[in-house]
């Protein structure tokens, strides 16, 4: 059975596999278990070309994106007068993002070239954020879009896989619900609160998309949720089971995107992506060590703010740890904007 061009049976099988894998990883107390468990298992099946129960591994991007506003709404609940008072102290690290982005791009470009990646592919694959924009500009410049997409995608995946493990070492606690941290903030949602948050999410998505805000599918609901929480209209945030379900959908969606990628391409671009991710995380840790004293934030929070993963995924880790959520998200929004701006300038010079 299909609906809107989607094989519903294949989608159901893929989600079921992701959910079981995520639940097992969570039960094993692995960092960010629901996300990483579903990601690793579905990615393995997709790369192998497996067809569980006779169905391909698939999860449409639009289905995955439909869950991202949940993260924005949950993060908006962390917006308090105390957070607002701390924002002026974030200026040093927000300004430092302007140095971080070109430094990461330059190092990634150099590494990729030395590993045999073409000049154009190395340029567009070096951007620490803005996956869609990078691929679009790469295609316009005549680069091999497959190489750029795999490099960008693997950089994202490797960062998502590595950061929770780094946090386990830095903090001694697992990232996610396995850590024992309450994702729901301890305030139960009433029916009225739930209705207002759904409305805030919908209005936030529509408004941010119309205004073309960066990361609109998450930043819009975040701002709308922050507004209703700040006004005192809502006290609660999305419950833990909803955050867990969102992790499963995000992880399964990321894993499913490996379907159809040839192993030769995966290995060639994977070497560059692995080296780039390692260099980027090392640079992020250097910035965190230098800046945490100026911002009043712990090293772990500043590191998470600079780690070049996806906006939704890095924010989800911050949400899971209840660690400077607004601070982390704000830096990732700025990083993505600057990455696209720098890429546009470099692309014009290359052209």
Automatic annotation (TrEMBL):
Transmembrane segments: 35-53, 65-84, 90-111, 153-174, 194-211, 216-234, 240-260, 272-294, 300-319
GO CC annotations on file: membrane
GO BP field: regulation of gene expression
Keyword Hydrolase: yes
A matching Pfam family: AbrB
This protein's UniProt keywords: Aminopeptidase, Hydrolase, Membrane, Protease, Transmembrane, Transmembrane helix
The keyword Hydrolase appears for this protein: yes
Gene Ontology molecular function, alphabetical: aminopeptidase activity
Protein name, entry field: Aminopeptidase
Organism, scientific name: Fuscovulum blasticum DSM 2131
């Amino acid at each position: 059975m299909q609906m809107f061009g989607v094989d519903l049976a294949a989608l159901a099988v893929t989600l079921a596999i992701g959910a079981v894998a995520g639940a097992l990883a969570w039960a094993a107390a692995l960092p960010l278990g629901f996300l990483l468990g579903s990601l690793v298992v579905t990615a393995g099946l997709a790369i192998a070309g497996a067809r569980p129960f006779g169905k391909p591994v698939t999860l449409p991007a639009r289905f995955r994106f439909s869950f991202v506003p949940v993260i924005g709404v949950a993060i908006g609940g962390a917006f308090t007068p105390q957070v607002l008072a701390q924002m002026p102290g974030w200026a040093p690290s927000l300004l430092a993002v302007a140095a971080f982005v070109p430094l990461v791009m330059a190092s990634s470009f150099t590494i990729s070239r030395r590993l045999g990646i073409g000049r154009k592919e190395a340029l567009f694959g070096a951007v620490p954020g803005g996956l869609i924009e990078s691929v679009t500009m790469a295609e316009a410049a005549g680069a091999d879009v497959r190489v750029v997409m795999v490099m960008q995608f693997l950089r994202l995946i490797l960062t998502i896989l590595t950061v929770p493990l780094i946090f386990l070492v830095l903090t001694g606690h697992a990232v996610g619900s396995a850590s024992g941290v309450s994702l729901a903030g301890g305030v139960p949602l009433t029916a009225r609160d739930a209705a207002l948050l759904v409305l805030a999410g919908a209005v936030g998505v529509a408004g941010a998309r119309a205004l073309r805000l960066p990361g609109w599918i998450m930043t819009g609901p975040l701002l709308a949720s922050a507004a209703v929480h700040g006004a005192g209209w809502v006290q609660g945030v999305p419950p833990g089971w909803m955050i867990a379900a969102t992790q499963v959908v995000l992880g399964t969606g990321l894993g499913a995107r490996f379907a159809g990628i040839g192993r030769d391409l995966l290995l060639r671009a994977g070497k560059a992506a692995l080296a780039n991710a390692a260099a980027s995380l090392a640079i992020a840790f250097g910035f965190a060590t230098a800046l945490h004293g100026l911002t009043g934030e712990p090293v772990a929070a500043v590191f998470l703010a600079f780690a070049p993963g996806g906006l939704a995924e890095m924010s989800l880790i911050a949400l899971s740890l209840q660690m400077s959520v607004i601070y982390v998200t704000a830096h990732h929004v700025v990083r993505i904007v600057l990455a696209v701006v720098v890429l546009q300038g470099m692309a014009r010079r290359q052209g």
